[in-house]
Amino acid sequence: MKTKNIRALAPFKGYVISDVSFAEIGGQINLEFDKRTGPRCPRCHAKIPRNKVGRRAVMDAPMSNGCIVYLTFPTAQGLCPSCNHYVTTCPAEVHPNSQATWRLMEMVSCWASVAPNNQVAAMFDISDSTVRRYDKEVLQRDTPPPDLDNLRTLLVDEKSVGRGHNYLTIVLNGDTGELLYMKPGKKKEVLDGFLTQLCENQRQSIEAVGIDRAGAYQASIQEHLPDADIVYDRFHLMINVNKAVDEVRRAEWREAKGEEKKLIKGQRYLLLKNEENLDEDAADKLEGLLQANYSLSKAYLLKEQFRTIFNYQRQNRAKEALRNWCELAKVSKLQPFRRLARGLLKESSRVCGYVKHKLT
Q1: DSSP annotation of 94
Q2: What does the domain layout of the chain look like in residue ranges?
Q3: CA separation for the pair 323, 316 (Å, rounded)
Q4: Half-sphere exposure of 144 toward its Cβ, with a 13 Å CA cutoff?
Q5: 277-303 pLDDT per residue, tens
Q6: CATH for 153-232 (3.50.50.60, 3.40.640.10, 3.30.420.10, 3.40.50.1100)
Q7: pLDDT of 143-191, one tens digit each?
Q8: Predicted TM-score of the model (pTM)
Q9: CA separation, residue 293 to residues 142, 248, 263, 325, 327 (Å)
């Protein structure tokens, strides 16, 4: 084999191949320092003394038949006279803290984007957790920092992760969906950490922020973005309305007796489903349920009417429709809807903010 072909197996700057061996179970490529350059500081690339010399082995990208390949190379520890740091040499093509080359980690990350982790782990003879770790390392290295200039809208929400009440606060660019910020917690201070890092011009360019009705995020936005419109997310608003419907259903079930109790039981999702998503059989069942119970009929009609508020093209018309809806909710004598109407009426501009900004 030509010398240049052997070098192509491990084109690592500052190192040369001293030995290559292959067996049925895999291969091994041994590297040595290039005598023309010697060991170099990974920080400033200055020459360092060999105070302590060792050897390290890492996994490399497999050969075409899938055999495991190990790469060994010398290490040198010493005080760099240029940057005055104690350093340990390592090829730039090898991850400094993982037992793998970058090209292997990139290959694992590529496969992890299209296949389950357990299949990728079996393919490279590593563990599932190692697949996740390699993927994370590659993404952290290659993902560019978020673009915080010319932001027009933001989306802020919390996400539950893991077991228990563990939450992350997530901020997205409302126009592109780009992830801008993610930190543990869902208190005001967490969102403050993102908004305080924006410069004055970046804050002034933000026209609207989409959130749920949680008070912690509102307080932070009002403090740092006083000129931005707060838009209550329509998905979260419909969750509030659906919750009111379900409270009415449960109250009616507790008071019902005999056949009416059986009729109401287990009909939660039938009441919460959008009318256009019902098939013929479900529509017939719903009609029978609404005819049998007046309170559920009112609750269902209030839910469907609330959805129409977001179909208006002008915010003033939407706010007028919201006021009418709140009046109907108040006279319905359904306590969950009366309670919800009082809260929504106070923040009508935020409830109808979707009509103005189309932000959800």
Answers
A1: B
A2: 1-94, 98-143, 153-232, 234-357
A3: 11
A4: 4
A5: 878 888 888 888 888 888 889 999 999
A6: 3.30.420.10
A7: 888 889 999 999 999 988 877 778 999 999 999 999 999 999 988 999 9
A8: 0.70
A9: 59, 11, 10, 21, 22
